[in-house]
Amino acid sequence: MSRVRLVEVAREAGVHPATASRALNPNARGEVNQRTVQRVMRAAERLGYVPNTLARGLRTSRSFVAALVIPDITNSLFPPIVRGAEQVLSGAGFTLVLTDTNNDLEMERGQVASMRAHGVDGFIVATARWQDPVVDELVSAGIPTVLVNRRCREASLPFVGSDDQRGVRLCVEHLAALGHREIVHLAGPADTSTGRERAVAFRAALREHRIPVRSSVIECAAYSEAAGVEAAQRLLAGGRPFSAIVAANDLLALGAMATLGEAGLRCPQDYSLTGFNDLPFMRKLTPALTTVAVPLTEMGAAAARTLLEWIATSGEAARPAQSLLPVELVVRATTGPAPA
Questions:
Q1: How far is CA 317 from the centre of its chain?
Q2: Torsion over CA of 269, 272, 276 and 279, rounded to 10 degrees?
Q3: Handedness of CA 222, 223, 224, 229 (dihedral sign)
Q4: What percent of the residues of the chain are helix, what percent strand, and what percent coil, each to the nearest 5?
Q5: What is the set of domains in the chain, with CATH numbers?
Q6: One digit per residue, pLDDT tens: the chain, 340 residues?
Q7: CA distance to 168, 190, 248, 310, per residue, from 213 (Å)
């Protein structure tokens, strides 16, 4: 069966082929009367027309492909970000290619190099380390790149993330109001912006509430349940008194809760616990986790919109655009009054 051509769609809709082309192109659709757009799209659907993105790319020197680089697809933080980005990109006529680096720098370098070789138009990067050679290479090459969730020391790139400082401050304020004075932070890796910034915000919040800082931060090797287990083991072995824990993400909180439960500590009777991100299953835990809700789908969508703007303007738009999305504390069952 032969491929349906654009001219046939135009004939079916009763419009000029150039009008049909604009009506079917998400980036040019605003130039066409809405009724005409609908007529062209109905004609395309009746005929089974599939746009030839290769031909469109040859005319515009674009591939209409964007890449999203994530560190761990098994982490429930990332699927909502992927969904938000994909919805925006597909609506603009782009294809999203997803790559999972498994937190491996050399794997990431190879994947990014491969996608550059295939001519992707730009990258959304969720893997950024504070000092990131892969991101530095993208900057040097002038490839449109937007950082999402994590930023890096390189300040020339747009960034879309959450208001980490406010999220941590809300946790500490909540715990302080419940009478907690011995609060520990399970921090994310120090080579990530989220790990660094949430730890800084935690110490500042303790000082604001005149709570002794002491050795109150335990750095974790990863944002994983296993790292939360290991951090809780270190907390128990060190003998530091605590009545509450502020975990840098939900998975760390989950690992800590399991380990402390095995040690006979009940939550929230013996200690209180907060997380960060509000992953979907956190409300289903027993007890349900008090955590910071982050608009992850909107984060991915905002990153995609920023990337499309950069691509459309060939980098002439003002940059960098640093966007921090609002967060809120969701109080559930893992926080309660400090033990007497």
A1: 23
A2: 0
A3: positive
A4: 45, 15, 40
A5: 6-51 (1.10.260), 60-161+296-324 (3.40.50.2300), 164-294 (3.40.50.2300)
A6: 457 788 888 899 999 887 888 888 776 777 888 899 899 889 988 888 776 554 554 445 678 899 999 999 889 999 999 999 999 999 888 999 999 999 899 999 999 998 888 889 999 999 989 999 999 999 988 899 999 999 998 778 999 999 999 999 999 999 999 999 999 999 999 999 999 999 999 999 999 999 988 879 999 999 999 999 999 999 999 998 999 999 999 999 999 999 999 999 999 999 999 999 999 889 999 999 999 999 999 999 999 999 999 988 875 555 667 899 999 999 999 999 999 8
A7: 15, 18, 17, 43
Distance CA 176, CA 183 (A): 9
